[in-house]
Amino acid sequence: MSNLRRTRDIRPVVQGSLAGDWFMPLDGCPKCGYPYEREPGYFLLSIFAINYVVAALLGVIIYLVLDFWVRLPIGVTLLLTIIPIPLFNLWFARHSKALFLAFDLFFDPHHRDRGDGDQPVAEPDRVPKDPHSQPVRR
Hints:
mainly alpha
């Protein structure tokens, strides 16, 4: 249940509020205080794994469409394939960080402790069936 609640807190990140402006990210979630960057270089994998792979797939798709269906000359095809990729990388960088953060939170849930770092979420030992009907011991 904690994972589901945190995933709902990440929803504004996926909708685009991960950054204060386009290139300067926020330190954490304004709603729950979840830190976006756990350590220096945290988002490098999002840029390498998500952003570049999606851009490469986009480039291959554009090239195949222009080469096999539109049948443009090779120079025009390469020009129309190469020019959109850096623009797409700039636009998609913020979204790839949000996707990486959502995947990381889903597969490795963390919560902020009272000390100096975040700890893995521990499962409770015993969950009461109905906390309101359980006797209170003083």
